[in-house]
Every structure is written in structure tokens, then in C-alpha cells.
Amino acid sequence: MTATADFEVRRHDSFGLRLQHLLHGNPVLGPLAVLVVAIVAFSIVNARFFSAANLSLVLLQVTVIATLALGQTLIILTAGIDLSAGAIAVFSSILMALFATDAGVPAPLALLLGFACGTAMGAINGFLVTRIKLPPFIVTLGTLTIFFSLNSVVSNSETVRGADMPGLMTWTGEAIPIGDFRLSYGSIIMLLLFGFFAYALSWTAWGKHVYATGDDVEAARLAGIRTGRVLFSVYTTAGLLYAVAGWILIGRLASASPNVGTEYNLDSITAVVLGGTSLFGGRGGVIGTLIGALIVGVFRNGLQLAGVEVVWQGFAIGLLVLIAVSLDQWIRKVRS
Amino acid sequence: MRRFVVAASGLLLVFAGAACNRGTGEPVVGLITKTDTNPFFVTMKVGAQSAAATAGVDLQTFAGKVDGDNEAQVLAIENLISFGAVGFMITPNDSKAIVPAIDRAHEAGMLVIALDTPVEPAEAADATFATDNYEAGRLIGQWAKAKFATEGKDARIAMLDLNANQVSVDVQRDQGFLEGFGIDVADKGRIGDESDPRIAGHDVTDGNEEGGRTAMENLLQKDPSINLVYTINEPAAAGAYQALKAAGREREVTIVSVDGGCPGVDNVAGGVIGATSMQFPIKMAELGVAAIAEYAKTGVKPQNTAGKDFVDTGVQLITDQPQAGVEAKDSAWGKQNCWG
């Protein structure tokens, strides 16, 4: 078998093998199929599910997680993992809220300071991973605890009320009605960010370097890619994205609460995995992640409308994750 | 006389042990809370500290990392045993799993008081100082029943609970509310086994704003005619209100809650929450410290409230829409007595 014939599908290949090749070439197809099937199934169970109002709710409910998962995707593409995503988002949201209220900083500046803090937290992760050469799992396990602790200290565990904040802080929660579909500014920001990073990963040198570093860091280094810089940029960018998620979160709650988001760290990883991005790095993409986040949202909302008990909702989502990872492994076995 | 000398020297030994470890002559009293992030426990800690200063005891505080963190609490008890503490108060993260550690503390001669949440079995602790959560639920249920009767409205009820684990506090508030509203709760120890058609549905909130909002959004999709919302606590209520506001339903829907935290009382004053049942965490901590200080002096253990298997630290309905036949205080009183 010659190298050029590696991925050619021949006529007599079985259906399973063709599917394997198809998914290998288009990692988004699997999650997309799951999403479509889920939407159809839930619509049959409860007619209310497939209404503009309900579907706009699902989008609203996954906006924060999707934004977090966007940053998480960049990191997982480099074969890393970020357990501190939710902690950075919640801490950034508290910081920007406190800048705008207690510190009396003008709202746009408070917002930028919050973004700067999130970026700095991401940079700390990046520094520890690239310079001190610690495994990402350990680094972010440590910083997760640190950021949540600082978050409690800074906020005194008290919610900052939306009424005390300038309008800009909660602006992301306002929505444009399109018929029955309510599109929030937070969701618009999230979708624009996804568009931007989908482009950046596919069409810029930086994007190619991210994939190369995740696929084989040693080979990438030998090919002249400054892998340390690529990794540092990825963690730092993710920190900024988490801070934006924090701003969207303030809009959603109409307040900044230090006691939310403990589940966000893992929820963001769930969305990435369901979206077909491989935890082994180098394969996947952000559009899959958006679909992955929507799958979680559709299941939570749909199972509730179908009258399924809460206990089983978690069970269903856990099962989905295992199926997604198994599928990923199977696709990677495309014969060479 | 001889017995007195033995007792006195025993006490002195305990104090000496504490002194060796802590460097002060005061008896060591422990406070172990579920977390040190929840304002409820932060308030409790502040109350305990001021009571400790008054009673002349050395307060050592510990907390779990997250809700449900049993291990950190076991560790705290082990530390207190090695300090030679006279006793401690604990809000157990895991009511059953903490009992063996409490038994060891008893072997070391300590007084153990459960605060806010009973241990299982309740007798494993010497006393429990807590809110009657069933009563807290019943009060907001009675208030809602009276309000709906006055306005001649049929209720469609959304139940926003804590989580899927049927935790005792969660169960008691939920079932108390339903009973107060006049609904047959079937098994008092289980959420969700009721068949009354007035209940539109249950969902879980994790007791925070985000969870409250998402749960309310989904239940409104399930049944847009919901007009009465029970919430496990005030952060969940604040989140539910945001969902109702986004749907343009906040004026027709009544929210009831439990806690009496200052932000929650502000929400009662602002019309976000119709009525809430206030708890008194500072009182819990003060009574706890006083009881342990008393035990250190005289060896006397605290007594339960008559007819209950715990010391009831009281609950007070707070509302700005008083209903006939339901005793309540307004939000101004609430502001003076709230916590957090």
C-alpha cells in the first residue's frame, strides 16, 4: 500500500468502513447527526419542544457553556486540558462586577479590566505548562482551586446585585425578539466568537500551528514551529474567552454570583468531547464544540419537557459522553 | 469532696492539653461548617466568634471544601481531638458518614452539637440546633394558600428543589410547603411522589441563581400557566425571577422561598419574592457556643425543645403582603434581622 492511497475508499469496502472514512474526514458529522436525531425525537415526545420560543431558550441556556467550551477546545486541540475554565469565568465576572460597583470604575473600563484579569489567569496556566513544564491537568487542577478560593475571598461569597451595576455589565442578557425567537446579545457574541475561531483555526498559520502542536509536539518543533509560544497563546486566549463567558454570565443572572459555575469546568469538557474533538489532540474543531454544547442543552431541556426525572437526565448525558469517546477511538482506527 | 477534686483535675487536664496545643488557657471549642463560601455559614462563623469572645472560649473553625465534602470534616474532628477540645458544633456534609468520627470525639469526652442539619441517627450528636425546615416550608405554603384564596386564583405550582439526592433539608421544605398549601404529600420523606394536578412539575437548581433560572425556563416551557413558584432558597428564587421576567410573566407569578438572607429580604421588599421564611444562623451558633461553654463549666448537656428531637432556633415569615390568619413580619423588620 502506497502512502498516497492511504485514505482512498475503494468500491468494495463495507458500509462501516466507508462511514469510518467519512467521519474521519468530517469530524462534525457525528455530533450533528446526534443533535438532529435528538431534536426530532424530543419534538415527537412533546410538541412544545420544537417551537421558536423553546429553541431560543436552549441557545440561551448553552451560551455560557459554549463560550467556555470554545476556549477549552483550543486547549484540547493541543492535547492539553483546562480544569479551571469555570473558575476563571466566575472569578472574572465577580472582578468586573466589583470594579464597576465598589471600585467605581467606569463600566467599559471595568469590563476591560475583567477581561485582562481572565487573560492573566490563562497566562498563568500557560506559563506553568510551557515554562515550568508541568502537565496541564495538574496545573489547572491547582489553579482551579486557587481561583475559586480567591473568588470567595474577593467577593465575601456575596452576590453583586445587577441593580447596583451599570447597564453595560448586564447588557449581554438583553435579547432581540425575532418573532418568538429571542436572541440575546450574549448569544450573538458567542456565535461571532465561534465564527472567528473557526476561521482562525482553518485559515491562519496560527491555526495550523495549533493543530500541528496537538498532533505531535515533537514533530511540530522539528518542523520549526515554536510550540512553547503556540501553547502559551492558546492558554492565554482561552483565559480571555472565559472572561467573556463571565460577562455573558452576568447578563444571564442579572447579577454576579460567586456561588455558581462549580460544574462549568467539567461541563465545558463534556461539550468539547461530544463535539468530536479528540482528547489526544490535533483533531476536531470549534464548530463541533458548538454542536456538542447544543446537544447537552437539547438533552437537558428535552428530557425535562418529556417529564424524565432529574436523576436520569445526568445519566443520559454521561452515557452520551462515553459513546462519543468510543466513536472517536473507532474513527482513529482508520486503517493505514 | 474527693469527686470534686477528680472532676476538677480532669477539667484541668483538658485545659492543660488545650493550653499545650494552643498556648491559651481557654477551653477549645470547634465549629465545622459545610463550606466557608456560603454566606449562611460565613454568618454562622461570625456569630460563633462573637459568642466565643463573650463566653471566654478559644474558637477553632473548619470547613469542607465543597458541599458534601465529608473527608475535610472528619479531618477537622481528628484535629479537635488532638487539640483536646471540650466540644464542637458541626453542620454535617454527610449526615450518616460523619457519625463514626463523632463517636470517636465522644470517646474523648467531647460535647457534639449538630447545627442546621441533623446527623443520622440524630442521637449520635448530644444535641441539634436547627431551623424547623418543615415548618419553614409550611409557613410559605399557608401564606400562598391564603393569597390565592383571597384572589380567587387556581394555583399551577412549580417546585424548584435543590438536587436529585432527596437531602433532608430539601425534602422537608418541599413537603412542608405542599402540606401548608393543602396538598396531599403522600410519603413525607419523598419529593415528587404527589399526584395533585395543581403541581406543574419539579426541577433542580443546586440552590444558585443559574440553576434557578434554567429550571424555571424549562418548567415554563412545560406549562406556561404556572403562577406559583416554590424555591429551595433565595438565590434560586432570584434566578427564577429572571426567567419569568424574560418571559414577561413576573407580574402574574408569585415566588415563595426560604432563608431570610439580606439579599432575599431586599427581594421581598422589591416585589421579586412574595414571602420567605427566615432562619437564624447567628442564633444557632450563639446557642451552640453557650451550650459547650456551659458543658465545660458544669458538665450539663443542652435539652431539646419540647415535642421535638432538636432545639428549634425559630423561623419567621417575612412578607409585605400580609394574609389573614398567617402571622408575619414585614421586610423592614426583615432588614434588621437578616443574615449575610
UniProtKB/TrEMBL annotation, chain A:
Membrane topology: Multi-pass membrane protein
Domain of life: Bacteria
Transmembrane segments: 28-45, 57-77, 107-128, 134-154, 188-206, 230-250, 271-299, 311-331
Main location: membrane
Pfam families in UniProt: BPD_transp_2
Subcellular location: Cell membrane
Keywords: Cell inner membrane, Cell membrane, Membrane, Transmembrane, Transmembrane helix, Transport
PANTHER family per UniProt: ABC TRANSPORTER PERMEASE PROTEIN YPHD-RELATED, ABC TRANSPORTER PERMEASE PROTEIN YPHD-RELATED-RELATED
Name of protein: ABC transporter permease
Automatic annotation (TrEMBL), chain B:
Record keywords: Signal
Main location as per UniProt: other
Top-rank taxon: Bacteria
Localization in the cell: Cell envelope
Xref: Pfam families: Peripla_BP_4 (PF13407)
Stretch forming the signal peptide: 1-18
Limits of the Periplasmic binding protein domain: 29-297
PROSITE patterns: PROKAR_LIPOPROTEIN
Membership in a protein family: Belongs to the bacterial solute-binding protein 2 family.
Protein name as it appears in the record: Sugar ABC transporter substrate-binding protein
